[in-house]
Design goal:
mainly beta, 2 domains, SH3 type barrels, seven-stranded mixed beta sheet, single chain, 20 strands, 2 helices, five-stranded antiparallel beta sheet
Length: 243
């Protein structure tokens, strides 16, 4: 839905439409998981007709939030007030079940798309997103409001934090891209802990920092498998979800 239509509905149609945000609590909805400790006081609101997708809002933000008609049956946008400005936040499943949170502001002239499954919004206007769909692991990102949209806050590394079986003989190195000396040689079928990915690497493959069972740390490049059909090589737990 285009910006102009949504803002018209927010400013004009809202008084005639009786909508309420659907707040849920852990235990009240079987699909709602407890938030991370840093967001333990955030309040969760349903954003889809299946009641399986949620937005978590800081208490001060949730107190002023309201539901706005979007013209879609069973759906609404969430009207947010942050720093004296108004924003609309709504959800779309995408063309092929690609979870998407959409953020709008009248001053942006565009919609901002956040592709992910969980979204936490702070009172100061930071958007924290977790994204499993389309990724080899659960990616955690932070976005901040700007005058023209949302901008990701760069991280030196992305946290992976997964235990992986090695699907082949694996060599770990001091530096990404096989740089430096060899730190360890891990036989196929061994269990390692994948700690981090370097999102800024220019190597041929994504680079991961891995810990051996002994506790040695080293870098290795790995592909990702797809769903349950194939495994990552040589880090078997890396599997892309989605199309």
């Amino acid at each position: 839905m285009k910006n102009a239509v949504l803002w018209f509905l927010m400013c004009v149609a809202l008084p005639a439409v009786a909508l309420e945000l659907q707040e849920v609590t852990v235990g009240g909805n079987p699909q709602l998981q407890p938030p991370p400790e840093s967001f333990s006081d955030y309040r969760a609101f349903v954003v889809d007709t299946e009641q399986s997708m949620f937005v978590y809002l800081a208490p001060a933000l949730a107190d002023k939030a309201s539901a706005v008609a979007t013209g879609w049956s069973g759906l609404y946008a969430i009207r947010l007030e942050i720093g004296g400005k108004v924003y609309l936040l709504h959800y779309d499943e995408g063309a092929s079940d690609d979870p998407t949170f959409i953020v709008e502001s009248p001053s942006w002239g565009q919609e901002v798309y956040l592709y992910g499954e969980k979204l936490f919004v702070s009172a100061g206007g930071n958007f924290y997103l977790t994204t499993r769909n389309g990724n080899a692991y659960n990616v955690r990102q932070k976005y901040s409001l700007t005058d023209s949209g949302l901008k990701e806050v760069p991280q030196s590394f992305y946290l992976v934090d997964m235990t992986c079986p090695t699907t082949g003989f694996t060599q770990l190195y001091q530096s990404p891209c096989g740089g430096g000396k060899k730190v360890a040689a891990v036989p196929a079928g061994s269990e390692v802990r994948v700690l981090l990915q370097d999102p800024n690497s220019a190597c041929d493959q994504p680079q991961y920092l891995v810990k051996t069972s002994f506790g040695l740390l080293g870098w290795v490049g790995s592909s990702a498998g797809h769903l349950n059909y194939s495994e990552g090589q040589p880090l078997g737990c890396l599997r892309t979800f989605g199309d």
